[in-house]
Structures are given as structure tokens and as C-alpha cells.
Amino acid sequence: MSVFNNLPSPPVAAKKPVSDTRHGVTRTDDYAWLRADNWQAMFKDTSILDPEIRSYLEAENAYMEAAMADTKELQKTLFAEMKGRIKEDDSSIPMKDGAFAYGSAFVTGGEQPRYFRIPRDGNPKDETIRDLLLDGDKEATGKDYFRLSGIDHTTDHSFGIWGYDDKGSEYYTLRIRDLSTKQDLDDVLENTAGGGVWAPDGKSFFYTLQDENHRPSKVFHHIVGQPQSADRLVYEEKDPGFFMGVGGSLLDDFIFIDIHDHETSEYRLLSTKDLMAEPMLVAEREEGVEYSMTEGGDVFYILTNADDAKDFKIVEAPVTAPGKANWKEVVPHEPGRLILNHMAFARHLVWLERREGLPVIMIRDRKSGEEHSIAFAEEAYSLGLQGAAEYETDVIRFSYSSMTTPSQLFDYNMATRERTLLKTQEVPSGHTPEDYVTRRVFAEAHDGEKVPVTLLYRRDTKLDGSAPCLLYGYGAYGITIPAGFNTNCLSLADRGFVYAIAHIRGGKDKGFSWYEDGKMEKKVNTFKDFISAADHLVKEGFTAYDRIIAEGGSAGGMLMGAVANMAPEKFAGIIAAVPFVDVLNTMLDDTLPLTPPEWPEWGNPIESEEEYRWIAAYSPYDNVEKKPYPPIIALSGLTDPRVTYWEPTKWIAKLRETVPEAGPFLLKTNMAAGHGGKSGRFQRLEEIAFEYAYAIKVAGKM
Predict the structure, then answer these.
(1) pLDDT at 674 over 60
(2) Residues 488, 584: one domain?
(3) CA-CA 20 to 30 A from 29: which of 204, 221, 527, 685?
(4) How far is the C-alpha of 124 from the C-alpha of 101, rounded, in Å?
(5) Is the pLDDT of residue 399 over 60?
(6) Cβ within 8 Å of residue 260, ≥6 positions away
(7) Domain assignment present for 194
(8) In this structure, are 516 and 540 located in the same domain?
(9) Could you tell me the superkingdom of the organism this chain comes from (predicted)?
(10) Cβ contact 622:655 at 8 Å
């Protein structure tokens, strides 16, 4: 029996067939017109959106509002619960850097962070000594959307670069602030990637510029006080398949230019002793070889998968000659031990690794070679390695949490091995960890692999198949979904839900091979793993098929579209956030922001007939058929440059046309935001409350 009753007639999208022939295959897309011809300009000025498209999106929003009208009070209740678990006037523990320690804080009712500093050894709890550098709430006044990219200070602490995006299109404007007067200089830099790296003298900085296709393709050198038009081009990446970023070293000796796609990387270095020099190539790009660098005084430490080190190793090379010929192994490759990132300090080398799906922080004394680890005993947990802002230190910072344990922040002395608890996440409305259970179970996949699934539920939840379940998945780009503390999902657990995360192939949860087995021609493993996770939860009595609500976003939204096509009968409902569902059309359009860099992940259907056929076989939009689809809601942002608004819009239109008796199929388009949804911390909670209200409604638990 449907939980959606008395719905008005849904919008019907006009059909304007457009045919395309590739590799001898002709496809007709009835809804291609929903892609605005002027999308690049529209991302910067939404008022120029084609009125016919705007009218259709607004009609979809009205239909969605009607379908969800009976959840309004539930949404308010959920929002109040989630907000009640957040310490409104929360503050970070400032990080020491020179004469100061830098931190951020929120005020009661505030949506945006405020950045401050205190004297280096000042009491972090003494608000009277805080020097407020940037008030995000003040800067966001009058704007429908506003996201800060942070603030980076000069070595002498006199100036700071800060950036903001006020459209959701991820084009950031950079400003320079005098940290003594708190006034911005006249310099205004448009269309940047959101941050910059200061030269040591504080008179200039380096930043990346985004082109009209939203690619960070150029690094510029900006001299304070000059117009952006006078900025010097330092390096331009001609290959549209590569992203680029710019960073700095703790010793202020080098500017790093990091060039990469999803499987290949290249670094170029600029010595801060000669800012006008040409960047020096470290090791030229070699398909499938990745590396990243950190400085260690007279050597660079380089994390790489070169020489078939699939799960990565760490090598060192002289600062004067860092080329590949001089790489010397420091931390060897061990199959099954995935090294995720690394940091170097004056006396220690630090790296974060993952074994059997669980993270461990490793520390090596650079002089003696002695190693030790920081590990924890829970069945599933998350670690975050923040490191330090200074090179000459023995103290690093890390965070720990689990699905039941609120986040804890520690300072750790690498020499004495002393661990100092700085802060435990407060849950103002109260949280009793003993009331909840975290488990890690393993589902058997179609090919015998064991898929980890992390579970959270109340201890008093009956595990007899009667509990509803929200099953979350992502499974792409090697991204691992951590089993960390999430106050929001407690609202589901408290209503009898089992909250589950399926650690499916496509992520690196079980090493690099776990990622490789979920990309390119093996992408279907990702979808099958998710279905296997659902099967296991039903088999073991955690839930039942008619009680599982599947959720995923972005590439996880592709997952949602794929499993809806493959096994619609195994889900009570599906939440697809900014879903990448029009995979084939997007991968065939090399003018879109992310298409060329994405080919190593999905395949290049322009050049390869084989890769065309891989994608065509699972692309959710292309495989909609007359099947018993469950209710589906797709969420999108009008200015999203990553998953463009027309993908979920076309998908919902096609679902509704193909199976008008199924669903209902709902579309919610945020007309003033992009990929990340609303920008404020409480505005974001409103969106989560909406998604959870949908899950509760579909599960019949209202």
C-alpha cells in the first residue's frame, strides 16, 4: 500500500527527441533539451536560465512539496533533534603556529564559522583573548548561498587570504585581509579554486584559476596591490583530463604544483628562493603512477604506487635532485596495508594506513628508525590525522570517533608517546553510548568477496526483520566512508531504524584492489556489492526488503540509479542526492567540467567502443525499463558543476514516463545552491531532516 496518497498529477516533461550515433549505435534522448545551452554562464547568473526549463523545475518542486506536505511537522521535529545535538557556540582547539594559535568558532544561531587567533600559549577557553579575523556570518549577510574556503595567513601573520563562493557554482572570489585592521585590501581575484599559498615574504601568493569549463587549469602568481589582470602565469596544464592544485611546505621552502587525474599524478616545484623561476618537474606523469610529496628538511618523502606498489610505499629523495632515479625506499610496500597519506616533521615521519578496513596512525623516529602505532580497540572506528602547522615539533593532532563514540581530539607527543585529550564532542541534548550498538558484519558478494557493512542501532531494537533500515553507499574514486560518529543518524536509530553503511568496491576500504575491482569494466561490482549488503541484512534478520531505504549521493547517486534498475523489488524507497545518473551522455560530452578527468574512472566512450558498451550497460538513465520501481526522490542543485542539474531532472522524467504507475518519482531542485546543497551548518540540517523524513514516511513509520 502506497504511503503517498491524493497526489496531484505530476509534471510531464515535453519530449524533444535528439539522436546521437556512436560506434554504430544510435540513441535517442527525449529530454536532452533540459540541458541549458548557456549552462556555463547560468552557473554564474541563474537569472538567465531558459524560462521553459525554469518553469519545469518549479513544477517539479511544487509536485514534490505536495507529496511531502504531510512530513512538514516531522521535518521540524527532526531538525530540532539534530540541532539539539550540536553545540551551537562550538569552537575548535586552536593550532599553534609561530606567535599565535589559529582556530574557528560558531556562535549561537550562527550559520557560518568565525576565524580567530589567540596568543600561542593563551587559554583556548578564554574568549576575551580571541582576535576575530573573519566573521563568516557578517560576510554572508543578504546572500542566499555563501560558503567560505577558509583563511590562510602569511608567515609574519600580517595578512590573510580568504575566499568565498556565493552562488554554489564553486567559483571562489579571493580577498586579502590586513589582520591587524581587519580591513580587506582592494585586491579582488575572481574565478579561483578557493585558496592560495603565500610566498614567505608575505608580498605575493600563488593560486589556481578555474576556466570556463570549471577546470583549475592555470597557476598564477599574484603580487599584493596589483590587479588580477597583471598576475603572472606560472604554469598552465594543457591536458583537460587533469586537475591542478597549489600548496606549500611547512618549511616555506617550496611551492608545490600538484597535477593529477584519478590514477596518474605529477608534481612541479618552485623554490621560494626564486619565485620567478620555471617550476621544476619532479617525475613526469606516467599512466597509472601516483605520487604525493612532503618536505623533510634535506629530503622529500614521497608516497607512491610506483613499481607495482599497489597499496603504496614511501620513498625519499634529495631536495636537490628529487627525480625518480633518486627515489630510495623508506617504508616498503605491503600488500593489504594501504598507506593513505603521510607527513614529515623534524624528528618524525608519520603516515596513516588502513589494514582490514580499519585505520592506524604509524610513527617512525627518523634518526633511530623505531616505529610505533596509535590504534584503538573498537570493532569499527574512524581516525583523522591533522598533524601540525609547524615542522619543528614533536606534537601532532588527531581525532577519533566511532558510530557510538562522539569525536575526541587528541594531541600526541611522538617522542614520549603521551596522548592528551583536548576535546570531546559535546551533545547538548544528551547521548548515552551504551544505548547503541555498532557492529561490523560481512556480506558475501556474488563472486565470494566479503563486503564490510557497518551498523548502528539502538540496543533495544528487535532484530527479527521488522526494523526499517537506511542503507547508505558510495563506492567510487577510492573514497572510504568512515565509520565515524554522526549525530544526525541517531534520529533514525531512535525511531527503530538500523543505520547501515555498505563499504562496497570502488572505495579503498579493503585496500587499493578493492578500488580497482569497482571501476572501469568492473564497475558493476559496486552495484552488486550493495545489493549483496541488502540481501545479507535481510538474511540475518536486521531488516526486510520492504523496509530498506537506499541512499547515496553524487557517484553514490549513480549507485542508487543502478540498483533501482537491477533490483527494484529489494528496496522500499531510494534517496538519490545529486545523482550522477546520465553517465553515458556526460562521458560523451568533453565540454562538461569533470568529463575528461573522469575517463580513468569510468572509461572514455568517445574513443573506445568497448568502454562505450561498458557504460551503456549500466548507465541508470539509459537502462530505465518497465519495472516495479519503488518510490524514488532525486535531489539536485541548479548551479552544481559536478553533477549538473539536468541529470536527475531527465532521469525522473524518464522514470515517470516509462512506469507511470510506479513510484512516485520526486525531484527536488535547490534553485540557489550547487553540489553540496545549502551552505550554512543549520541550513544543511534542514536538508538532512527532509531526507530522513522521506525515509521515515516511505518506511511507514510516521
Answers:
(1) no
(2) yes
(3) 527
(4) 9
(5) yes
(6) 242, 243, 244, 266, 290
(7) no
(8) yes
(9) Bacteria
(10) no
Strand-pair category, 469-473 with 498-502: parallel
| Grid cell listed for 138 | 557578517
Nine cell digits for residue 212: 570556463
Is residue 455 within 8 A of residue 498, CB to CB? The reply is yes
Mean pLDDT of the chain: 94
For 279-311, the DSSP string reads: PEESS---TT--EEEEEETTEEEEEE-TTT-TT
Three-state secondary structure of 600-666: HHHCCCCCCHHHHHHHHHHCHHHHCCCCCCCCEEEEEECCCCCCCCHHHHHHHHHHHHHCCCCCCEE
Same domain, 515 and 597: yes
Together in a domain, 29 and 120: no
Please answer whether residues 101 and 120 qualify as being in contact, where contact means their C-beta atoms are separated by less than 8 angstroms.
Answer: yes
Structural contact between residues 689 and 82, judged by C-beta atoms closer than 8 angstroms: yes
Residues 38 and 94 in one domain: no
Per residue in 576-622, pLDDT (tens digit) is 999 999 999 999 998 887 788 899 999 999 999 999 999 999 999 99
Burial class (CB in 10 A: 0-12, 13-18, 19+), 166: middle
Of the candidates 121, 183, 114, 112, the residue with the CA atom closest to the CA atom of residue 146:
112
> 128 and 32, same structural domain?
no
Amino acid at 428: P
Would residue 328 count as lying in a domain? no
The pTM assigned to this predicted structure is 0.88
Q: What is the largest CA-CA distance in the chain?
A: 73
Residue 70 lies in a domain: yes
Taking only the tens place, the pLDDT of each residue in 456-488 is 999 999 999 999 999 999 999 999 998 899 999
Whether residue 409 is predicted with pLDDT greater than 90 in this model: the reply is yes
Q: Any idea what the Cα angle at residue 503 is, between residues 443 and 371, rounded to 5°? A: 110
Asked whether the beta carbons of 329 and 313 are under 8 A apart, the reply is yes
Please indicate, yes or no, whether residues 455 and 561 belong to a single structural domain of this protein.
Answer: yes
pLDDT greater than 80 at residue 681: no
> Is 95 found in the same domain as 68?
no
Domain boundary among 75, 110, 142: 142
Nearest by Cα to 8 from 79, 69, 82 = 69
> Number of folded domains in the chain?
2
Tell me the CATH number at 546. Answer: 3.40.50.1820
- What mean pLDDT do residues 69-95 have? 94
Three-class HEC string of 219-235 = EEEEECCCCHHHCEEEE
Residues with a known catalytic role: 554, 640, 675
Residues with Cβ within 8 Å of 335's Cβ and at least 6 positions away in sequence, in order, are 310, 311, 511
pLDDT for position 679:
64
Dump pLDDT digits (tens) for 544-576. Answer: 999 999 999 999 999 999 999 999 999 999 999
CB atoms within 10 A of CB 291: 24
| Residue 483 resides in a domain | yes
| Segments forming the whole domain that contains residue 436 | 18-83+430-698
| C-alpha cell recorded at residue 84 | 539539539
**Placement of cell 548515552 in the chain:** 432
Return d(Cα 304, Cα 326) in angstroms, integer: 14
Strands 291-296 and 114-119: unpaired
Which residues share a beta bridge with 299? 296, 318
> What is the radius of gyration, based on Cα positions, of the chain?
25
Q: What sign for the dihedral angle of Cα 594, 595, 598, 602?
A: positive
- The whole-angstrom separation of Cα 506 and Cα 452 is 13
**What are the grid coordinates assigned to 298, written together?**
634535506
